[in-house]
Amino acid sequence: MGYRLIIALLVCIALCKAHGQEFVQHHMPNDSISALPPVVRVLPNGDLWAAWSSWDIRTTPWASRLHIRKLDPGGQLLAANDLRFSILAGGLSLFAAALLPDGGVALAGRFNSKALLVRVDASAQLMGATHYSMTTAEAFSDVVVQPDSSLMLVGQCRDGGGFLPWIVRTDANGVLVDAWSDRIAGMEGGHQIVRPTDDGGSLLLGTHFATVDSSGMHIAKLDGLGELEWGRFLSARQLRPVQAIQRTDGGWFVLAQQLIEAGVLSGAPVLFRIDADGTIGSNTRLWAAQQSSSPYSDCSMDRLQDGTLIACAAVSVLNGTAVFTMDSNGVPEPAARFVPDSALALRMKAMALDNGDLLFHGERVDTSMNTSSPLLARWDTTSAFPCGSSMVPVYTDSIGHGLGSMFVRILLSPLVEDITAQILPDTITWTVSDPCAISTAVQTLPHVGTGLRAFPNPADRTARWAGLPGTQELALLDARGQVMRSWQRPLPEVLELSGLPNGLYLLVAKSNNGMRSTRVLVQH
Fold first, then answer.
1. Average pLDDT over the chain, rounded to an integer
2. How far is Cα 207 from Cα 164, in angstroms, rounded to an integer?
3. Closest CA to 283 of 265, 256, 262, 317
4. Whole-prediction pTM value?
5. Could you give the CA distance from residue 114 to residue 417 in angstroms, rounded to a whole number?
6. Residue 474 C-alpha from the chain's centroid
């Protein structure tokens, strides 16, 4: 019942603000290179920045490229730039982006084992690229623009020994202002997230560890001058933050992921409630159909204009992505939207747009070439996802953790190098396809691994199915997620479709290994 209420609320939002701008874009190169998932930011007017890196593993060392796109709210291209790094070195990785006052974007990440800042103007033209390093293995994982247009970048570095969480502040042009580390003595660590606070300060989140079993998540509050107001360390095995959103009372919702099985990359998202003074409140761990989720990089959280929270997590056992809905107090709805891999992609995150739509960003895998490339999708959640979606039950519990608060500050002096001249125009171009065929004829979707297929497609009164051994149950869902047909073992080879209205349906197959789905167009 709860999820129906939120869907009804989103319908009301839809009546007030224009929808109809859904799109699904798979960006594919004209050469056999593999790309990482994009980082995205939305401008106040609704335009979208997306940037991703790609590696050409055919060279030794690998060749790295940077790809930048600016799209309007409907997904139409406004500006583009494709660049290559002339130095063959360690792969380029982008981890975060921040909007610049002039409408451009700052990109943070790593290249050649050094932390990297790239600045791009409003026309997607390169303004500058800067390396920051202490020794080796530096990276920036997040970036924010301060009210005076200066930049604060956070991540990890090495200063002789182990890893340190570090903060680097620069002016608007990337010129170093200062750098330091707030760390827990006797442990290594790194920052993953920085968020501006309502009082002009910053909230830092990251991890510290001595061993795998002696690890946890840190949260630190800085004032507007960068001085530490308070710090907390939540000791819990392999707990890592993925998002922080400030509440209206000054406190925070913090979403983290915890790996729950020794040596196995699976876990579950955990929502923490933290007061403005650093008091740690209760937490809620989220399970989609009682299944664990994938690790840290496959999880995200955002907030709609009405205060509703949306958390997105990949669920490998179910072969798809669960989108959890929580009210403004962090209480989850009893069911989550589920987008299967076979209908779309792997490794998706979700961002909330002003009119209630969600923006998915992640990567799609081409199994025939063993490459991956970026995918962007805008979803009006008042209806099923264009590539197919369903509902799964949500279960909750909580985790236990220790609590500490001892931080030590160390001043740092990184080396700074301008590498703008080493970045050149690229010759590899990219094309865009619509894997869900929103605006074109329905196509057979590429499948991941062993896929479910229905044929003929479009179908008239009957359809056959194949491609998924061990299937125990089949169900046909309409665009609202309602079950229109279902079949139990022994499963028929021919599915009866007579009596169904013309339209697009989702065929879902369930087995002991999870679920798969494919789209079926019924045309009598």
1. 84
2. 10
3. 256
4. 0.78
5. 10
6. 30
Q: Which CATH number does the domain housing residue 468 bear?
A: 2.60.40.3080
In single-letter form, the type of residue at position 136 comes to T
* Rounded Cα distance, 112 and 100, in Å: 25
Q: Which pLDDT band holds residue 7 (cuts at 50, 70, 90)? A: very low
Say whether pLDDT at 516 is over 90.
no
**pLDDT value at 148 more than 90:** yes
Q: How far is CA 76 from CA 24, 47, 53, in A?
A: 11, 9, 21
C-alpha neighbours within 13 Å on the C-beta side of residue 327: 10
426-462 b/e with 16+ CB inside 10 Å = b? beeebebbbbbbeeeeeeebbbbeebbbbeebebeee
Compute the distance between CA of residue 409 and CA of residue 182 in angstroms, rounded to an integer.
4
Measured CA to CA, the distance from residue 423 to residue 521 in angstroms comes to 47
Q: For residue range 149-183, list pLDDT tens digits in order.
A: 999 999 999 887 789 999 999 999 999 999 999 99
What sign results for the dihedral spanned by CA atoms 321, 237, 160, 224?
Answer: positive
Closest by CA to 258, choosing from 249, 246, 250, 267, is 267
Domain annotation covers residue 415:
no
Q: Does residue 37 belong to any structural domain of this protein?
A: no
- Among residues 77, 10, 6, 26, the alpha carbon closest in space to that of 377 is found at 26
pLDDT at 346: 60
Mean pLDDT of 303-314: 92
For residue 498, tell me if it sits in a domain.
Answer: yes
Q: Which domain holds residue 464?
A: 450-522
Domain presence at residue 213: no
Instruction: Find, among 24, 441, 400, the residue nearest to 216 by Cα.
Output: 400
Residues 6+ apart with CB under 8 A from 459: 497, 520, 521, 522, 523
By the 10 Å C-beta count (0-12 exposed, 13-18 middle, 19+ buried), 258 is classed as buried
Burial annotation 150-180 (CB, 10 A radius, 16+ → b, else e): bbbbbbbbbbeeebbbbbbebebebeeeebb
Stretch 24-42: mean pLDDT, rounded? 84
Give the model's pLDDT for residue 247.
Answer: 95
**Residue 322 CB: number of other CB atoms within 10 A?**
25
Contact 430, 28 (CB under 8 A): yes
Number of domains in the chain: 1
The residues, ordered by sequence, that sit 6+ positions from 420 with a Cβ below 8 Å of its Cβ are 126, 128, 129, 130
Q: What are phi and psi of 480, to 5 degrees?
A: -90, 0
